[in-house]
Amino acid sequence: MAEESVSSQAVRNFLGPIKDLWDDPSVSEILINGPNDIFIERGGKLHKTDKKFPDEDALRAAVNNIAQSVGRRITFEEPRLDARLPDGSRVAVVIPPCARNGTTVSIRKFTQTKISFKDYIAMGSISADGAQFLDICMFLGKNLLVSGGTGSGKTTLLSLLCSRIPRGQRVIVIEDSSELKINYEHVVFFETKQSDSLGKGEVSIRDLLKSSLRLRPDRIIVGEVRSAEALELINAMNTGHKGCMGTVHANSPEDAIVRLEALAAGGDGKLSERALQYQVSAAIDLIVQISRYSDGSRRVGAISEVLGQNKDGTYNIRPIFQMSRLVKRPDGKLDGQMEPSGELPSFMQEILDNNLPFPASKFTKPGAA
Ligand SMILES: Nc1ncnc2c1ncn2[C@@H]1O[C@H](COP(=O)(O)OP(=O)(O)OP(=O)(O)O)[C@@H](O)[C@H]1O
Ligand SMILES: [Mg+2]
Fold this sequence. Notes:
- It contains 11 helices and 17 strands.
- β4 and β5 form a beta hairpin.
- The chain has helices spanning 2-14, 19-23, 56-69, 117-122, 128-139, 154-162, 205-213, 229-238, 253-265, 273-283, 348-353; strands spanning 27-33, 38-42, 45-48, 80-84, 90-94, 104-108, 144-148, 171-175, 187-191, 219-222, 245-249, 286-292, 298-309, 315-323, 327-328, 334-335, 338-340.
């Protein structure tokens, strides 16, 4: 641990002109578009700063030092870097000639503050009933996808959900670079490995998923499903691994499931479209859609259930909770809350059988008789 903190301190020192942004807990992201153009994200909104690096060489030197500190290199031949710093922050870099603005860096700072479900509700990111319903889905071991755009809060929400898994299970987490912060007793973390300079030794999410299946998982969590591993994940979900979860980049629950299908199709060309669609719809129980709104807030916009397929082959996806109409307040903030859609989940009986404190009345649409 001591070694880690020294190293984080060193990284901070490389970033001389922006040290105070690094130290400012209200800054969540730092975006450097060449030496003279530095933006930050604060409270979900982007702001331009007056910070500058002396010149491109100074910025490049800082980036080289960061790369070295994590045992990597960034060069003309290898002009991209995606790394996790020892303190958990994430750095992505692209340098010229690929980056026209000059060395381009994005730093997603590791947030020390652990968000609890309670905070999440207090921030207005989800309604209390929505959160309780998700909690119940965790208890019942529903297979769930968190869907959202870039930086919408998928990883944060997945971490929260993982922390609500009932005790006594073995959870295996697979990620490209370790980000999920999970407060749970029995959890194994796997991280992918890039190939060496000869192009050998790569270990992908798919490889790790295959290994996980032999390591007695109760639940498998894939940080981000972005490639052919979607097929193994679907298979795992359909072969008795209840409560598997992952995130996927998509703008709606419908898009998320179609994307999952497309990714899985890349994993096995031999499976017919119909067979694959059937497996996808059988595997996924729920999709939680999260979005970043125009006032900078991040909120769960829908909790939808996947109910199989329609006659025309499309997926039958039904919202259980969804965002009401949002109204802009004079201060620019959006007012509104997730509300029940009026539909009962297909597993209402399971909720009752388990004596879970979520009566059917909680699914009644406000204003409905
Ligand atoms: N509900 C929330 N309210 C406010 N800020 C949030 C919320 N959820 C996440 N954040 C912040 O938003 C940023 C992005 O969050 P996160 O990494 O979870 O997003 P992501 O969708 O996984 O991003 P990516 O697309 O890069 O994987 C982080 O700084 C995080 O602390
Ligand atoms: Mg993420």
